[in-house]
Amino acid sequence: MPYDVVHNHAFDSPAVRLARSLSFPVIHTLHLPPDIAVRAAVSEVRRAQPAPTLATVSAWQAKAWEITTILPDGVPITRIPWSDTPGDGVVFAGRLSPEKGAAEAIDIARRAGVRIDLYGDPYDREYAAALAISSRTVAGVTIHSGVAREVLWRVMARAAAVLCPAKWDEPFGLVAAEAQATGTPVVAFRRGALEEVVSDGATGFLVPPDDIDAAARALMRIESIRRPACRRHAETHLSLDRSLDAHERLYDQVRRRTPAPHA
Length: 263
Fold this sequence. Notes:
Number of domains: 2
CATH superfamily of the largest domain: Glycogen Phosphorylase B
Oligomer: single chain
Helix content: 25-40%
CATH class of the largest domain: Alpha Beta
Radius of gyration: 20 Å
Strand content: 5-15%
Distance between the termini: 6 Å
Strand order of the largest sheet: 7-6-5-8-9-10
């Protein structure tokens, strides 16, 4: 069966190299920050004839990978409930592994004197176990298992803020985008594409990486952020429709440039 375009989202270097074996036009979206193995594979396939089209999910990532094509992520705005009333407590959502910053989120909340609910499943089991043990007797800290997106959106909409203290260069920042869609402002470390997703001072606050004190101070003035502004920012800049439009434009460009062969 002939295909107009094959779009690959796999994260590993063999998947990048396998694009050379296909007779159809290939787009490969790179979802993670650069690493040595995948960068080597990308260099190889760029010399292939025809070379696959390489894309990233943010301007930060495009610069890091030295790639010009961006297919931004997006969130389904019309499905996400929102509230213009400031909520209570803060939320962290993400896999429980060091790079996502769950431990830092707890430190920020404790320093600001607010309750925190964390939602996520163990990705690094040792890290998750240590986090559970260290927070078991700490007042105002509750760790929940991961929940369905529809449930998480309602939780976010009832929060005063969502914390994104990433310990790595976040390729996009989907949780931050979802939070703003619910009307809830974000406090995040200024890392990776979070600077593109969060409008500093308008839909939340960006602080220097790993600066717990600065994040706590930002959290203590989160009520200065207007929740309708968060929702409007998500509608204008972070919607799934915007993402799908970018995908369709690229599919059409690639198809016209390199027509797929007929069976």
